[in-house]
Structure formats: structure tokens, C-alpha cells
Write a structure and sequence with these properties.
With 187 residues, this protein is an alpha/beta fold. It has one domain: NagB/RpiA/CoA transferase-like (Rossmann fold), CATH 3.40.50. Helices cover 25% and strands 24% of the residues. The chain contains four helices and twelve strands; from the N terminus they run ααβαββββββββαβββ. The protein has helices at 3-15, 19-34, 59-67, 139-146, and strands spanning 43-45, 71-78, 83-88, 95-97, 103-105, 110-111, 118-122, 125-126, 132-133, 152-156, 176-178, 183-184. An eight-stranded mixed β-sheet has the order 6-3-2-1-7-10-11-12, sandwiched between helices. A two-stranded antiparallel sheet has the order 4-5. The longest helix has 16 residues, at 19-34. It is globular. It binds the ligand Nc1nc2c(c(=O)[nH]1)N(C=O)[C@@H](CNc1ccc(C(=O)N[C@@H](CCC(=O)O)C(=O)O)cc1)CN2 and adenosine-5'-triphosphate. ATP binds at residues 3-7, 132-140. It comes from Patiriisocius marinus. Its cofactor is Mg(2+). It catalyses: (6S)-5-formyl-5,6,7,8-tetrahydrofolate + ATP = (6R)-5,10-methenyltetrahydrofolate + ADP + phosphate.
Length: 187
């Protein structure tokens, strides 16, 4: 299946989920994540959920990080050049929902992408090798390319992997994908 069809398939699969399904599975994903050895690092990046796109609700993961006093980065998207600018999440950080439905920090202390030890990555579709498809603007391909080579890229998804996703020259594979019941790690 080509990328455009896969995007359509997963947008439809997500749209069919109830808010209750999303909430339960997002909590399961966070609980599954707790079983991994990814919590001893210092600097984490998390995406903030676009609610009308039925994404994984990252609030549960965020609470785990906040409970452990991690340095947490959140981003503002620049749709002119498909880049992300990262800010330290602080108690007094104010958010605005952008016209694309993304909650974004208004301002704050800027963070360099190379400080992150772990980045949680939004995915529409993925395969067992860690190839992923997003909304097709390359925001995360660009961002992950700026990260430290040792950084862990962790996808989160409600769904099982596709058999194979054709990887493009800019695609950076995920280290693993967490789903409600299982963790997929490229071997
Ligand atoms: N929560 C979250 N934040 C994220 C991402 C994500 O997937 N999830 N992104 C991951 O990369 C980037 C944002 N990527 C996006 C790309 C397209 C659209 C969007 O609304 N597209 C419209 C078409 C709009 C247009 O083409 O102008 C659509 O799909 O209907 C939204 C976010 C950065 N932040
Ligand atoms: N590091 C990069 N430098 C320059 N262009 C890039 C880079 N990464 C991706 N692109 C370009 O961005 C576009 C979108 O890439 P792709 O289809 O892989 O997006 P995606 O991974 O589905 O989306 P996203 O990363 O936003 O979730 C492509 O035209 C690709 O060539």
C-alpha cells in the first residue's frame, strides 16, 4: 500500500475510535511504557495531542515524566518550513491550540534538539523495522535528524504494525513502538 493510502487507512481507523477507547488505550500505553527501561534519563521530548485527530493522549506519559521531575520539552510547529522549535515545559507555561489543533507553548526557554535522551513520536502507521509514516510534512524526520545519535525515538500507536513501509531517504527509524498490549522493537 502506498503512503497516501496508509495515511487514509489509519486516519479512518482512528476516527472510528470512541473517546472512551482512546482514553483507555492511552492509559494502557503509558502503563506498558512503565515496564521499559527508559525512565532513568534526564531530558524527554513529548508531543501534545491533537484531540480532533484521535491521537494517543500523551497526558498519561506526561504525568509519569512530571512525577519523576524530568526535563520535558514541547514544541511549536512552523508550517512554513516544517520545523519544530522546542521549549522547556514549566509550571507556568501557557498553551494555545494552533489552527492545526496542536496545543503549543506560547513562549519559554528554548531547548536544543540535541539535549533529548528520549523523544516520543506521533505515528500514523509503522512497521516492525521502525519505519513510520506521519502526516506527511516531514516535521519529525527533520527533528529526529537533529537529535543526538544515542537518543531513543519511541513511537506510540493504538494499532499493530504494517507488514512493510517503504523507507525514504530522510526517514529515521524508531527505536521502538509502544501499543496498549505490546512493545515492538526492531531486532
Ligand atoms: N500532536 C502532534 N503534534 C505534531 C505532529 C503530530 O503528528 N502530532 N506532527 C507530526 O509531524 C507535526 C505537525 N504535523 C501536522 C501536519 C499536518 C496537519 C494537518 O492538519 N493537516 C491537514 C492538512 C493541512 C494542510 O495541508 O495545510 C490535514 O491532514 O487535514 C497537522 C499537523 C508536529 N507536531
Ligand atoms: N531532514 C529532512 N530534510 C529535508 N527534507 C526532508 C527531511 N525530512 C523529510 N523531508 C521532506 O519532507 C516531506 C515529508 O516527508 P514524509 O513523507 O517522510 O513525512 P512523514 O514522516 O509522513 O511526516 P511527519 O514527519 O511530519 O510526521 C518529504 O518531501 C521529504 O522529502
Amino acid at each position: 500500500m502506498d503512503k497516501a493510502l496508509l495515511r487514509k487507512k489509519y486516519k479512518n481507523l482512528r476516527a472510528a475510535l470512541s473517546t472512551n477507547d482512546i482514553d483507555e488505550m492511552s492509559l494502557e500505553i503509558a502503563n506498558t511504557a512503565l515496564t521499559l527501561d527508559i525512565w532513568d534519563y534526564t531530558n524527554y521530548h513529548i508531543f501534545l495531542t491533537i484531540e480532533d485527530k484521535a491521537e494517543v493522549d500523551t497526558n498519561y506519559l506526561l504525568h509519569i515524566l512530571q512525577g519523576r521531575d524530568k526535563t520535558i520539552g514541547v514544541s511549536k510547529s512552523n508550517f512554513e518550513d516544517s520545523s519544530l522549535e522546542h521549549f522547556l515545559l514549566q509550571e507556568n507555561t501557557k498553551f494555545k491550540i494552533s489552527k492545526y489543533g496542536i496545543p503549543e507553548p506560547l513562549d519559554g526557554i528554548k531547548l536544543d534538539p540535541n539535549i533529548f535522551d528520549v523523544v516520543f513520536v506521533p505515528v500514523l502507521a509503522y512497521d516492525r523495522k521502525g519505519n513510520r509514516i506521519g502526516y506527511g510534512k516531514g516535521f519529525y524526520d527533520r527533528f529526529l535528524a537533529q537529535c543526538n545519535p544515542t537518543c531513543k525515538f519511541i513511537g506510540v500507536s493504538f494499532f499493530e504494525p504494517e507488514d512493510e513501509i517503504q523507507s525514504g531517504i530522510y526517514d529515521i527509524p524508531l527505536s521502538m513502538v509502544i501499543t496498549p498490549k505490546k512493545i515492538y522493537k526492531p531486532s
